[in-house]
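Troubleshooting entry. The earlier prediction with magnesium ion gave an output that would not parse, so I re-checked the input for stray whitespace and re-submitted. Clean input:
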Amino acid sequence: MTLSVRRLRGVERLAGPLLVVRRVPGVALGEEVLVRGRGGAVRHGQVLELDAEALVVQVYEGTAALDLGSTVVELTGGPFRLGVSAQMLGRVLDGRGRPIDGGPPIVPLRSADVNGRAINPSARASPEDFIETGISAIDLLDSLVRGQKLPIFTGAGLPADELAARIATGARVLGEERFVTIFAAMGTPRRVADFFRAAFESSGSLDRVALFLNLADDPAIERLLTPRCALTLAEHLAFDLGMQVLVVMTDVTNYGEALRELATAREEVPGRRGYPGYLYTDLATLFERAGRVHGRPGSLTVLPIVTMPDDDITHPIPDLTGYITEGQIVLSRELHGRAVFPPIDALPCLSRLMNAGIGEGKTRPEHRAVADQLYALYARGRELRRLVTVIGEAALSTAERRVLAFADLFETRFVGQGATRRSLDETFALAWQVLGELPREELIRVPTDVLDRFWRPANGGAANGRAREGGP
Amino acid sequence: MSTPAAPASPEARGRIVAAAGPVVRAAGLPRLVVGEIVRVGPSRLLGEVINLQPDAATIQVYEETAGLRIGDPVEATGAPLRAWLGPGLLGATFDGLQRPLAALAAAGAWTLAPGLEAPALDPQRRWSFTTRRRAGEEVGPGDILGVVAEGPFEHRILVPPDTSAGRLRAIETGDVTVHEEIGRLATAAGDVPLRLAHAWPVRAIRPSGGRLGAGEPLVTGQRVLDTFFPVARGGTAVVPGGFGTGKTVLEQALARWSDADVVVYVGCGERGNEMASLLSEFVELVDPRTGGPLLARSVLIANTSNMPVAAREASVQLGATIAEYFRDQGYGVALLADSTSRWAEAMREISGRLEELPGEEGFPAYLGSRLAHFYERAGRVVAQGTPERTGSLTIVGAVSPPGGDFSEPVTQASLRLAGTFWALDTELAHARHFPAIGWTQSYSLYVEPLTRWYREEVGADWDERRTEAIALLARERQLLEIVQLVGPDALPDEDRVALEAARLLREAFLQQHALDPVDAARSPRVQLAMLRAVLAARAGLGAALASGMLLEQALEAPVLQELRRAKGWSGDDVEARLTALAARLASWDRPGVGPAAGAPPGEGSAP
Ligand SMILES: Nc1ncnc2c1ncn2[C@@H]1O[C@H](COP(=O)(O)OP(=O)(O)O)[C@@H](O)[C@H]1O
Ligand SMILES: [Mg+2]
């Protein structure tokens, strides 16, 4: 197109993240632009709208301190592209992928449009390789598989970062090379970024990690770019180079807020709680980049952290995330208060892809049945716990009291594993220990032959004996 | 979808004057009509004209618009959005614009680039067509011309509904591609070539020879559906539920187990991995009715959440058009749409870009009428044309209410339209009670018209048992409220038995694991036998307590253990075994005693 008009003056409006400038021919929707004010650093933007007279640009760094008269908009001729290469592993980059660790410049292998492209659903290979995270509540009850997108729903002050770091440093696929991790910080406090960095460092995996940092004091609108940069590198490593890639993103809530800020500036009709109606689609264009592809050896697994504002799981950001992702791990303030780590509330947790990754030849043949049984009993235990607060424990039958006791044990011993990493075998052994507290007749979700093999009464037959004890 | 060669006349070319997201405005195309398909930009992206002003047309673009520039060309095509209908649909996977995704993947397109083009139906493939007509015969719209054997499926080739009646000038049996002539029809308007495939505008409801009432259920194999809240063939059902409550698993169970002849599954704005796993399972799963793979009776449409939003609406309409096409052949068709909310959100997004006045929660004011138009496409009909045949189109639409709150506009608008309401309950899902269909909120308006069928085909006591079971669950709810206040001990024996019986009903009957190797689907007769057994247990428990036994003891009776594990029973004699178990449960007053003499062997009680 016309190369003479690369620099535009005639800025007509500056408002929050938006800049409106008189149009020239040949500008493309989505094109990257550079914005130069009087003095000051170069800012970056993207063309959002084109109309007869003007074009609307979103400026990632915002328009503060710009003026109409001296601002110049420079067209770059194409969308924002990120140069990607495996050299980015071991590096710290800013929210748009430039090194900030003082290391050597990165020589990209190729460059890619950070928006990526939808994977053809028919080219997807179903994720089915079990990942041992070392966390019992995940490995047995809500197993993670390679190529899955599984968020952690957390509340302010709950240890989601610790859990995510543990998963990122401890995840293994049996007999396979370790994951490489891409960490994307979106509006994250420096303390959190430092925590992750230290966690990777102490596990000796820093050279297998790339950190993209948009921190709390970095420009808000740039956050919209950060996960896209991280995923673009992840796609390169997974689908071009065949690596097993894990992307940890924190915090999706900050991302959603940046999107809302932009939508408000554009005076769009808001959807629920002021978030734009396309929040679902926008988040989907991030999370759906996870997966596996037929004929390509790598995989891209996404682990986003979502802080539920006011612990409200129905808030649009966790809600829409849950609608897109393949399950969720939910943290509980109540368990955290009782010093259970990780404070995973098993009931609202889910892994939709679990079934493809477990069972005969993958984990254990009885995996599904044991998980179902633990769930059924724990759900019943929680129901009874609610009842007990009203009518007192004395009103329960012996069988009910046993289930109640099971629920306590399940939380403190099975879920609450503290700092240790548990192998899948250890997790199963512990599950059978906890199930041993109940008479085998009550374990109706487990086939009898499995019970024959694994079920043993706790304390040498006490469970059976107690069934009769203290009856009315 | 239809991609006619672009007419080269200068009036058919305009240019872009404005663009934002999926909406562009084009000037210089005076002959456009609303609904016409246009080609936008150098990559010839598909777009549709939404409205017209004297100086410009507003176009929604079905593909990613990044890179479009002011002044880029826009071409008219003279045709609305159309689906290609003919042999080759079954077993295929399409996107919302009917691009053949599997064929594209096979050709190496593992990502979807804007402007990608490929014919919906393989233009090279030859099909063996056998005519059922002779030259000289009079035929009209909807008449069956002949058949193509598509694996185990008899694909009936019809005179397209928009073709006028006339005399067959020629019609021949032979191996032909979808676009080659199989014959010619002499009509008042001149000769019309006949082919295996024809195109049909996706937003136009295909005509039928008249509607019939509900008479038979679509049997799904799911106990809570078939026994409690059945949907009629030709009926409509909506399935709202928060995330993770089981909408997709339910839709997929229907795709697998329902006794439809053809299943059209539309993944609209949902996950790519779900479509991939459905696809790979359907290749392997065997259709018990034909012995062929399940995929051979299925058409999959995948317009996932990360694919352009404007095509979501097209995907649902495309699915409905393909479904109607098979209905017109005289088949029972199920259209499963997951999720209609994503389609409604796409409408909201486009409407917002058009700066239309928003209605409730930002949805356009025409949300209700669009949904109505969609659900109206369901029905049991006498097909147009000869020989006489009936076909049905059953629509099951999933709804994804924000925050799981059913008071939102899409759920409410859908509820007004659907005959069956399967309300998914988040608490049940969290407690792993699946399918998590809440029995208090759900309903079916088809119970009455279907009762006769159930009495004749399933059991004369079907409606009685059903009513009894639903009443038991209602009683449980009342009793649980009392228990919350005073504890279970205060209840009289009869009520404590009711509570235990209700629990059995939930656990041994309503819960049905979608992946269970034997219990995933059960015939209505087995369903009724299970229900009878559960209700018999109530009588049995009552009798046991009346004879002086303590409830706790009674509950440990082996015969109840058997009932709790009956979901694992398989084989041809399950119904007989359940009937025998029911007899033992009802007459049982001495717990701990083994199976009554002469009863068929049970699975065996705990050792
Ligand atoms: N009938 C069922 N049997 C067993 N598990 C089920 C059933 N229905 C749902 N589930 C469980 O619930 C999860 C979520 O179901 P899904 O249909 O994906 O939810 P939704 O589409 O409503 O978000 C599934 O991954 C599965 O674990
Ligand atoms: Mg779903």
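This one parsed fine. Chain B has 16 helices and 26 strands.
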